[in-house]
Specification:
0% strand; mainly alpha; 124 residues; 434 Repressor (Amino-terminal Domain); 8 helices
């Protein structure tokens, strides 16, 4: 399985649920679930945490590299750059530049990111 919609479909069918049940659980309408399952659209970032909760696992493996881990964390928690920036006390535009590949963080910033990710792992 490659798309998030495929995981949603499998979890829904395995549990014998209708689109309407999943829509209620995730917080969207039935059309969204249908579109995701059929690959017509991808879920908005804000729905990712409830989708992960519904399917029972995060289908994206945790990467090894620091910036990839941070991007994974952002996606997995459904965070915007603004929300992640607030959590980390880093300007959202700086995060967007780093995660978008426009700029590389300096060593001090990488250490701050590593520390943040380590604290998140310890609290979970």
């Amino acid at each position: 399985m490659n798309r998030l919609g495929e995981y949603i479909r499998k979890a829904r069918i395995d549990r014998g649920l209708w689109h309407s049940h999943v829509a209620e659980i995730v917080g969207v309408n039935e059309c969204s679930i249908n579109n995701w399952e059929n690959g017509h659209t991808e879920p908005d970032l804000r729905y990712i945490p409830s989708i992960i909760s519904f399917i029972g696992f995060n289908p994206r493996p945790v990467p090894i590299e620091t910036l990839e881990k941070l991007d994974w964390y952002k996606w997995s928690h459904g965070l915007t750059y603004e929300e992640l920036g607030k959590e980390m006390s880093i300007h959202p535009e700086q995060l967007a530049d780093w995660l978008g590949g426009k700029r590389n963080p300096f060593r001090k910033s990488l250490d701050k990111i590593d520390g943040f990710l380590q604290r998140q792992c310890e609290s979970n």
